[in-house]
UniProtKB/TrEMBL annotation:
GO terms for molecular function: ATP binding; ATP hydrolysis activity; transmembrane transporter activity. Keywords: ATP-binding, Nucleotide-binding, Transport. The lineage of its organism: Bacteria, Bacillati, Bacillota, Bacilli, Bacillales. This is Putative ABC transport system ATP-binding protein. PANTHER family: CELL DIVISION ATP-BINDING PROTEIN FTSE, LIPOPROTEIN-RELEASING SYSTEM ATP-BINDING PROTEIN LOLD. Belongs to the ABC transporter superfamily. InterPro entries: AAA+_ATPase, ABC_transporter-like_ATP-bd, ABC_transporter-like_CS, MacB-like_ATP-bd, P-loop_NTPase. Pfam families: ABC_tran (PF00005). Residues 6-227 form the ABC transporter domain. It comes from the Bacteria.
Length: 229
């Protein structure tokens, strides 16, 4: 049986605005195995980013249970949450979020600095990871000297360099043209073949088709599509 790395049971999230409850996530069950490439597909306002924040331990649910790599997330304090986030999750965002004054290599080294890795090993691991995403010639370039697709590759290398359990991407092709977006999907395929578990959030059905499992979210309700549809 496949190793389960993430399990959500009955996860709900409510916001209270002007005394009124708005339920943004409704009783969500989700389980992800090692080696999965999953897409969560839904229109704007359906709750995708809210769910991503839950998966990434950036926010806590109003109700339900969440287990990530055998740890019950709701039992963790702030410090433990930061630790599990750094260890288990590699984040990729629509707008890349690179630091503009740093070279590609230094951007990728950043999470290793936080993890207390020494300079020599940092440099080696960042260089290796940038090669894996196809940027061997661009290590010393700064973000504004790179195309959008290349910047997203740097962001993916930064997310991967700490060897997280899950690569968690929120609209990773949202700021890219279609062709460049598909090249980023080829990179996701490659990383998934190499064993990386991927969860990708998107509003784009064509992009979602790259995944091996597709979940739809609508009005805070999550359902998985049957395989082969
Ligand atoms: N901090 C918040 N406070 C109140 N409502 C929020 C908050 N964050 C998100 N929402 C609401 O939750 C719903 C889902 O938002 P979101 O998860 O960002 O959707 P998506 O990423 O699919 O566009 C929206 O109706 C949004 O207005
Ligand atoms: Mg969103």
């Amino acid at each position: 049986m496949a190793e389960q790395i993430l399990k959500m049971t009955g996860i709900s999230k409510s916001y209270f605005l002007g005394g009124e409850e708005q339920m943004v996530l409704k009783n969500i069950d989700l389980s992800i195995n090692k080696g999965d490439f999953a897409a969560i597909l839904g229109p704007s306002g359906s709750g995708k980013s809210t769910l991503m924040n839950m998966i990434g331990c950036l926010d806590t649910p109003t109700e339900g249970e969440y287990t990530l790599s055998q740890q019950k997330v709701q039992e963790l304090d702030e410090k433990e949450l930061a630790a599990i986030r750094n260890k288990e999750i590699g984040f990729v965002f629509q707008q890349f979020h690179l630091l503009p004054r740093l070279s590609a290599r230094h951007n990728v080294e950043l999470p290793l600095i936080y993890a207390g890795v020494r300079e020599k090993e940092r440099e080696q691991r960042a260089t290796e990871m940038l090669s894996r995403v196809g940027l061997e010639g661009k290590m010393e370039h700064r973000p504004n000297q790179l195309s959008g697709g290349q910047q997203q590759r740097v962001a993916i290398a930064r997310a991967m360099v700490t060897e997280p359990t899950i690569l968690l991407a929120d609209e990773p092709t949202g700021a890219l043209d279609q062709k460049t977006g598909q090249q980023i999907m080829e990179l996701f395929h490659q990383l998934n073949r190499e064993g990386k578990s991927i969860i990708m959030i998107t509003h784009d059905a064509e992009i979602a088709k790259n995944a091996k499992r597709i979940f739809r979210i609508l009005d805070g309700l999550l359902t998985e599509e049957e395989a082969g549809c």
